[in-house]
Amino acid sequence: MDNPRLFLFIALSVVIMLLFSAWQEQYAPKQQQSPVAGVPTDQPLSPGSIDNSPSVPSNDDIPSVQPQATVPSAPSAAAPGVASTIIDSRQRIVVLTDLLRVEIDTLGGDIRKAALLKYPKKLKNPDDPVVLFNDEFPVIMIAQSGLLANVGSNVDHHVVFSADKTQYHLSETSESISVILKWKSDDGFSVNKIYTFHRDNYVIDMEVEVQNDTGQDWSGRLYRQLQRNDATNQEQSAFIYTYTGGVVSYENNKYEKVSFDDMATWKPEASYVKAGWVAMIEHYFLGAWIPVQDQYNYFYTKVLDNGRYMIGISSAERKIAAGESGQFSSKLYIGPKEQDRLATIAPNLQLTVDYGVLTILADPVFWLLKKIHHYIGNWGWAIIFVTLIIKLVFYKLSEAAYRSMANMRKFQPKIQALRERYGGDRQRMSQAMMEIYKKEKINPLGGCLPMLVQIPVFIALYWVLLESVELRQAPFILWINDLSSKDPYYVLPVLMGVSMFIQQKLNPAPMDPMQQKILSFLPIVFTLFFAFFPSGLVLYWVANNILSIMQQWYITRKIEQTA
Fold it and tell me: What is the pTM for the complete model shown?
């Protein structure tokens, strides 16, 4: 294979892949869904068909959804940049910890707003944090929970709770703080919904305490759900696509994306499944409901009106006899995709840092990147050292590729003479070239396999740099103060283009004039293309290109000196 042709193929494939991913996200048609008729739009979904396996709850455990008050209609259109809400509200309770600022609404005890205090939207405004949960346009994401009764009273997200205070602040001497929301019916059925916040923790514990003094048994289940629209909290380059949508995990299904378009029809493999969690994720952050891991839950999704989507879980039915009490427990995670944190919270929650099919390679690459950062304290230099280590690991493979290129370059004048001699006679030309390859012991395919073997590793590193929240707003040196944003002065993209041009000069030039023209334009095309990439990704490409140039120049020089 002609090595410049291979290089051209790989380069164009990368460009086409990234452009197609971006186009699909930006312009691909989305299926329009309608709410389910006859059911209020923000009610938890009632389970449908049931797996009658003896290991899971039976048909009788499924309550039907009883009609409740409907949600007020949204305005017909919201002006761009103007906050508006489509979700009813009552009194707000504000909770401030060292990591979170959360607003809880007494209507249903919903968590309506949550700001991540350690993650500013922009570096220049450190006091303006990312608001991950919000009940106003343009980005809507809220957490709801409630009790659906099969026998007795519903205490869902339409009831109004009361609280002793409207302001809670985690003091410097406290490790946790609890917010107690209370509700009681006229016939003696009472519910306390308790949220507990912890220091240096994005996990919120939720306990729902039930006291049944009605004189008759109560039976029902706890549901937890996340509502979201398909907007995102973060600005992204049109050339970079990261997933925003739903994710589920449960026993025998470690990680499954449920896109917004699929939420009208998605169903789990069985009616009730053990353990797991549900989440709404975006580039660097997520919200996730995490049930008790040894319990069975029903997983559901639904499309609501006003461009909203729902994903949730519902527990198996429990009975609380007259005069007795009971408790339901769950956890809510609101925070960044910090892998070390996520791995300790629930099984497979760290998979929300989505490296795709190359996770098996990306995980050790991230581990290495993190270890190096631990010692040098700079993510930019960590990227450079990881790139160097990968180059050293693949040194012998790269050496074989560059040696093949150098040999092709060495005998290129002879090959050019053959082209001039045989003109358009391709068969005789091919035979004569094969004779030269055989005589000089040149393997024209020698540069292909080593390069192809390395591609998965470099793509894995690409996804590590793209997905890791640790690199968000991380400084490097001089003018680069955010490795997750583009280079403000486009220095790195220009260096990348120059390094590509130098690499081309070290490679044997293709004989086809058209290929020569295309290759000559690639450095310019890639410079423009990478101008909008996060600077951490461009830094990786520049470092990799420079190391490749050094290795290729050294090998080419040695071979040419022996000529």
Answer: 0.79
